[in-house]
Amino acid sequence: MKKVLENAEEYNNPILYDQENESFQDDIPFLLKWANKTEGPIIDIACGTGRATIPLAEAGFEMIGVDINGKMLDEAKRKAAELLIPIQWEEQDCTDFQLEAKSNLIFTVGNSFQHFLTNEAQDMLLKSVGKHLEMGGIFIFGTRFPSSEELLQPSTEEYWRSYKDGDTQQKVDVYTISEYDPIEQLQHYTTIRRMKESEASTRITLRYTYPKEMERLLTKHGFKILHVFQDLKETPLSKDAYQMVCICEKVG
How confident is the model at residue 1 (pLDDT cuts 50, 70, 90)? Predict the structure, then answer.
């Protein structure tokens, strides 16, 4: 039985997701740098529509993409097939994925770590990663930095960005509303997309994890933190960070 998808409104439309996110490729050179240091299959968990999986496969690496969302994976498969790129796609829950392969490099991009909302979910994710990572292997992931600016956003509607819809060619204005729950460390987002004659909204909830909390969590699951950067240029983490990019080695 497939697990019922929760907290997934933002991913119900893979075409829209790619329109809004596919142009972001800044993390690909960063991932290629680490991929070039390893051998064997590379596992992309919470791979979505293959935004990072496909470019690494194009570069010649053996890739496995894992995601719980069948709609997103269907679009990933379509794009890979169109490019004639062989990739192993697995529709599985990332907190309990079961692959025959083990890897020297596992990653998840797009701040997907924040979709694991509870302590139990974070524990299960890291346990599954550890089970599929070779000793000395590397796990790379990013998560938004819990700065006061990030967490204490106004609960009123705020303009975010605009883009042109690929199908209708209409301008889309995107607004967000956020509400932070400091007890659960959860940010509840509503995203509103307005076109000339229509409007749609989606909701999503994200977990924020503090640096020392992250250090304790990773150590508990047998990972040694090699680096924590605040961006993909490998700038050391600071109080002004927007993101935490964690590079961890399996040591236990």
Answer: very low
The closest alpha carbon to 83, from 66, 100, 97, 63, belongs to: 63
Percent of the chain with pLDDT over 70: 98
Nearest Cα neighbor of 92 from 26, 13, 31, 2 is 2
H or E segment and range at residue 75? helix 70-82
CB contact set of 232 (below 8 Å; sequence gap of 6+): 26, 27, 29, 30, 245
Domain ranges in the chain are 9-145+209-250, 148-206
| Closest alpha carbon to 52 in 81, 32, 36 | 32
3-state secondary structure of 129: helix
How far apart CA 45 and CA 67 sit, in angstroms, is: 6
Fold of 9-145+209-250: Rossmann fold (3.40.50)
